[in-house]
TrEMBL record:
Pfam families xref list: Peripla_BP_4 (PF13407)
Cell location: Cell envelope
Keyword Signal: yes
Family: Belongs to the bacterial solute-binding protein 2 family.
Superkingdom of source: Bacteria
Protein name per Swiss-Prot or TrEMBL: Sugar ABC transporter substrate-binding protein
GO molecular function, one term: carbohydrate binding
Domain Periplasmic binding protein: 55-311
Entry GO CC: cell envelope
Signal peptide positions on this chain: 1-26
Length: 347
């Protein structure tokens, strides 16, 4: 779940200024069949059928919208390729069961395993075992403890989420030095939550603001409603709220509605379809959300296929797929919401 922060605030802010939403693996899209060129000048035909690739896929239980979207996107992506056979096991939050699932993939001699571990550290030994058995492992979202446990890793950007949210808040509150900014975090003990909060605080400091009121929830609807109710009771005036997670945001929205408050605007987190629809309609407190891509599982499927077939990313000169792909955390507003709605998840 948590992963190391690999971006600095200056670099993220520069990317935000460009307004370019970077995504992984775009060189494999159908309209780009044939891809780019490798170092020898040969065409890279990413989407042309090749050697059959059997991929095992395992992820935690789909107990909220984002996680359900991860698995659904992976299945849909695999279905686009006639040379991919996907074996999906039931999602589980039982570490021992997930280890057993990977062991079964190893015994079945699959070509690749795309694994979003419930606990990256706990799944590291079995991922190492798979790699030693010659199976290509693609690690998704929650990093293993060893760089040798995966051929490639696909990550979101938790720190970048905070920077994106804070930069948007700064832009909206420009010149309002006494603005009251509130934050509804996720689980405080998790490094991913800590990274998001750090990025948010760093971005706010750049415009002379800071978080005045902060509460933590647990990434659930119930905890979001409870945390938001506590926040609204404690703070009589708020100008802006950043909520880390749109799934818990369903409860946050309920608490706001019950309070009758409406003097502030909200920025969501993760990028759910229901929040994006509210942004598009412009009829609620949400004016933006920051994406934590639920396409990571699908990107893992593409990388696994390319790695096993010895292909590269069509938009890169390198002849191998990268060791790590970190996805961007763009801000979705009314101006660009139509671009992101098609890949949004339902909370």
């Amino acid at each position: 779940m948590p992963h190391k922060r690999t971006t600095r605030i200056a670099a993220v802010a520069a990317t935000l200024t460009l307004g370019v939403a970077l995504t992984a693996c775009t060189g494999n899209t159908p309209q780009n069949t044939g891809g780019g060129t490798n170092q020898g000048g040969a065409r890279v035909a990413n989407d042309e059928p090749g050697k059959k690739v059997v991929i095992g896929f395992s992820a935690p239980a789909a107990d909220h919208g984002w996680m359900a979207a991860i698995t659904n996107a992976a299945k849909a992506e695999a279905g686009k390729y006639s040379d991919v056979e996907l074996k999906v096991v039931e999602g589980t939050n039982d570490v021992n069961l997930q280890i057993s699932q990977v062991e079964t993939f190893i015994n079945d001699k699959v070509d690749a395993i795309v694994l979003l571990p419930f606990d990256g550290a706990a799944l590291t030994p079995v991922a190492l075992k798979a790699m030693k058995a010659g199976i290509t492992v693609i690690n998704v979202d929650r990093e293993f403890d060893s760089p040798f446990a995966a051929r490639s890793t696909v990550l979101g950007d938790n720190y970048g989420m905070g920077v994106s949210a804070g930069t948007y808040v700064c832009d909206r509150l420009k010149g309002k030095s006494d603005a009251v900014v509130a934050e509804i975090a996720g689980i405080d003990s998790l490094p991913l939550t800590q990274d998001r909060s750090k990025g948010f605080a760093d971005a706010l400091s750049g415009c002379g603001l800071k978080v005045a009121n902060r509460v933590a929830a647990e990434f659930t609807v119930e905890s979001g409603e409870r945390a938001a109710a506590n926040l609204l009771q404690a703070a009589r005036k708020i100008d802006a709220i950043w909520n880390h997670d749109d799934d818990q945001g369903v409860g946050v929205a309920a608490a706001i509605k019950n309070s009758g408050r409406g003097e502030f605007f909200m920025v969501g987190g993760a990028g759910s379809a229901n929040v994006m629809r509210e942004i598009k309609a412009d009829n609620g407190p949400h004016k933006a959300t920051v994406i934590y891509p639920s396409t990571q599982g699908a990107d893992g499927i593409r990388l696994a296929r390319l790695a096993v077939q010895g292909k590269a990313l069509g938009d890169l000169v390198e002849v191998e797929v990268p060791r790590e792909v970190q996805l961007f955390a763009p801000v979705v507003t009314k101006d660009n919401v139509d671009r992101y709605l098609p890949t949004a998840f339902e909370s």
